[in-house]
Amino acid sequence: MSIKQNIYPFTALVGQENMKKALILNVINPALGGVLIRGEKGTAKSTAVRALADLLESLKVVDLPISATEDQVVGSLNIEEAIKTGEKKFEPGLLAKAHKNILYIDEINLLDDHIVDVLLDAAAMGVNTVEREGISYSHPAKFVLVGTMNPEEGDLRPQLLDRFALSVEVIGEQNPKDRVEVVKRRLAFEKDPESFVTGYEEAQQLLAEQIIHAQKVIHDVVVTDETLEIAAKISIKLDIDGHRADLMMIKTAMTIAAFEGRLQVEKNDLLKAATLVLPHRLRRTPFEDYNQGWSDIEKLVNEECLV
C-alpha cells in the first residue's frame, strides 16, 4: 500500500464507531444506497470519507457542490448535434465521474430536493439516465453516496430521509481521555505526517484486506426465514411506513456478516443493522430529538432476537 502523507489514516480516527462502520458497509456494498451523516462541525465527517477512499486506493472522492445544477450532476445531451448528425453526444456530469467512487455532498440538506431525489435514484439503480427532447442516454453510475449535514441548519424532508439506507448521528467525544487522544494524534500527524502514517500502515493494510474480502463474498451471504421474520416484526411494531426499512435491515445485516468474515446472518447482525437503519425512519414531531426513543428500539430488537 502506498503512503499518501497528506491523508489522515482511517484507522487513526478516534471514536465515531457508527459513522466509520456505516461508511465501510457502503463501500463493501454500494447497493445499500448511501449514508447520511448528521452532526455538528468538527466531528471528522469529511476526514473520515477521504481517509476511507485513501485506504482502498481504488476509490476517489468526487465532491458535489450544493450550487450544482441538474445538468452538472446528471450530464447533458447536445440536442443540436443529435439532430444534425443523428448521433447522441453526451456531456458527462458528476454522476459519471462518481462511478465506482464516492460521491460526497457536504451540507446535503441545503441541496435542491429535486437533485437529492435524482442522486438517490441513481444510487439505488446504479444507472443514470438523461432524457432531453425525446432523446435518452444511460450510463452506469454505481457509487457510494455520502451526505453530511448539520441539523441546526435545517433538515431533509422525511421522504428523502427514508431513501438513505443508513443514517448516523455524530457529536464531539464526551470522554476527556478520548478528546485528549483526538488532539494528540492530530498534532502528531501535523508535526510529522510520514512517521504518523507509517505507524498505522499495518492497521490500514489489515482493514483494507478485510473490506476487499467482504466485497468478494457479500453475494454468498445467506439469511434465514427466521431473520427475515424478525425484521418484519420490528418494522410493524415501530409502525414504520413501507418495506424499505425491512429490506435495508436485511441487506445491512448481510453486509455486516460479510465484513466479519461470515456467510450467514446472525441475529446480532440484525441488531447492529437496526442501529444504523431505523432511527431516521421513526415517526416523530418536529420538536422531538433525533435519537429520542432509540432505547426502545434497542430493547425491541433485543427482545425479538432473543425469541
TrEMBL record:
Gene3D superfamilies: Magnesium chelatase subunit I, C-Terminal domain, P-loop containing nucleotide triphosphate hydrolases. Residues 31-176 form the AAA+ ATPase domain. One of its GO terms (molecular function) is ATP binding. Pfam families: AAA_5, AAA_lid_2. It comes from the Bacteria. InterPro entries: AAA+_ATPase, ATPase_dyneun-rel_AAA, CHLI-like, ChlI/MoxR_AAA_lid, P-loop_NTPase. PANTHER family: MAGNESIUM-CHELATASE SUBUNIT CHLI (PTHR32039), MAGNESIUM-CHELATASE SUBUNIT CHLI-2, CHLOROPLASTIC (PTHR32039:SF9). This is Magnesium chelatase.
